[in-house]
From TrEMBL:
<dbReference type="GO" id="GO:0016616">
    <property type="term" value="F:oxidoreductase activity, acting on the CH-OH group of donors, NAD or NADP as acceptor"/>
</dbReference>
<dbReference type="InterPro" id="IPR002347">
    <property type="entry name" value="SDR_fam"/>
</dbReference>
<comment type="similarity">
    <text>Belongs to the short-chain dehydrogenases/reductases (SDR) family.</text>
</comment>
<dbReference type="GO" id="GO:0030497">
    <property type="term" value="P:fatty acid elongation"/>
</dbReference>
<keyword id="KW-0560">Oxidoreductase</keyword>
<dbReference type="InterPro" id="IPR036291">
    <property type="entry name" value="NAD(P)-bd_dom_sf"/>
</dbReference>
<dbReference type="Pfam" id="PF13561">
    <property type="entry name" value="adh_short_C2"/>
</dbReference>
<protein>
    <submittedName>
        <fullName>Dehydrogenase/reductase</fullName>
    </submittedName>
</protein>
Length: 250
């Protein structure tokens, strides 16, 4: 018996990295998981592993910046598993992203980036919230970042937006018994991080952490499970740092 038996969770961007860790952990706790990713092959591989481990999973290709694609994802979850209880908005452009400033980034790239990294969380929430309400409520997690509190160009700006979106949506969703919170990771050791962030910057960042090591996707999993669980039934509209002490907020 798991704490999420008979529940259905969608995790976007779960074809690898942090999203994969979230999806696997939810499945291990009994949830039927929709492994949603723009990389269908990656999603299929994760879903196959979950099933091989005794869980329930469905791989779905999704472009979170496209409302029709997000709606198709929600419909697939309902058709396969009967409803939706949880959504983890993890999908983002990060691995291989351009490193540029707000004043100089090509405008078409900026618009595409924000459409995925900020608007995508709202688009997916709009696709699922009525299904959650039909089940008596649910819970949503947005993936933020400590980049929201330091200079991190348009990536940081998107995460500031994710934090604000989390707070604003808590007011619109609360009366439907749907909670929404955000997790803000510090530096996490993923392939996307290794291929995108200059490693000299990563090393310096880690040396300055009170808990001076890189985080792992598994470090984020307990917070994800807690925020989706009934243990967090009176928590909404909050941003939780899981960052080795990187950011101090008073």
């Amino acid at each position: 018996m798991g704490q999420f038996d008979d529940k259905v969770a969608i995790v976007t961007g779960s074809g690898g990295g942090i999203g994969q860790a979230y999806a696997a952990a939810l499945a291990a706790e009994g949830a039927a998981v929709v492994v949603a990713d723009i990389n269908l092959e990656g999603a299929q591989n994760v879903a196959k592993q979950i099933v091989a481990d005794g869980g329930k999973a469905l791989a779905v290709e999704v472009d979170v910046s496209d409302p029709e694609s997000a709606q198709a994802m929600a419909d697939a979850a309902v058709n396969e598993f009967g409803g939706i209880d949880y959504l983890v908005n993890n999908a983002a452009i990060f691995g291989g992203m351009k490193l540029d400033g707000l004043l100089t980034v090509p405008w078409d790239y900026y618009e595409k980036f924000m459409r995925v990294n900020l608007d995508g969380a709202l688009i997916c929430t709009r696709a699922v919230y009525e299904h959650m309400a039909e089940r008596g409520g649910g819970a949503i997690i947005n993936q933020s970042s400590t980049a929201a509190w330091v200079y991190a160009n348009f990536y940081g700006l998107a995460k500031v937006g994710v934090n604000g979106l989390t707070q604003q949506l808590s007011r619109e969703l609360g009366w439907r018994n749907i909670r929404i919170n955000a997790i803000a990771p510090g530096p996490i050791d993923t392939e996307a991080n290794r291929s995108t962030t200059p490693q000299a910057i990563v090393k310096q960042m880690v040396q300055q952490l009170p808990l001076a090591r890189m985080g792992t996707p598994e470090d984020l999993v307990p917070m994800c499970l807690f925020l989706l669980s009934d243990q967090a039934s009176w928590i909404t509209g909050q941003i939780f740092n899981v960052d080795g002490g990187q950011i101090i907020r008073s």
